[in-house]
Amino acid sequence: MKKIKLIISEFRLYTANYIISGFPSHNFRLFFYKKIMRFEIGKNTFIFMKCTFDSTLNLKIGSNAVVGARCRLDTRGMIEIGSNVSISQDVIILTADHEMNSIDFSGRVRHVTIEDYAWIGTRAMILPGVTVGKGAVIAAGSVVSKNVEAFSVVGGIPAKKIGERSANLQYDLHYKRLFQ
Prior knowledge:
There is one protein chain. By secondary structure, the chain is α/β, with parallel strands linked by helices. It has helices spanning about 1-20, 25-35, and strands at about 40, 45, 50-55, 60, 65, 70-75, 80, 85, 90-95, 95-100, 105-110, 110-115, 120, 125, 130, 135-140, 145, 150-155, 160-165. It has a single domain (about 1-165), classed as Hexapeptide repeat proteins (UDP N-Acetylglucosamine Acyltransferase, domain 1, 3 Solenoid). The chain has two helices and 19 strands.
């Protein structure tokens, strides 16, 4: 019975990553992600084409958020994304890695949280266990290995604070494109 559940889970994941993710209908993809993958996705949130996931479950996204094309969301650990979050294309969010000093290369998972109004630039990478604070900005190409304070702007490898963002944010994201 356990083997059958594993096969079904892997088939759902394969279907999501290699068939559904390329389907040019956001509503169809969203239906699959909510009902079959059991992701929690808020109203007016868009996940663009060719995004991939590392497991079923463990993804919660608030309202009015955007996940750009070709993002990799490692959902082996929990990923929580707030409302009005903009995640640009090709972003990688990791929740799992290996204990480097373990004699058996044991794996570990750690929760990633991205709070409301955060903006993650193109090709940024967020590592396991990180919290990106409310309104924070991650510059394109950055590697985030530590928590980011609210309204901070960080950039580089590893990401370091390079500025501040206004704390007066009141917008609702509504970025939707046909066939994306």
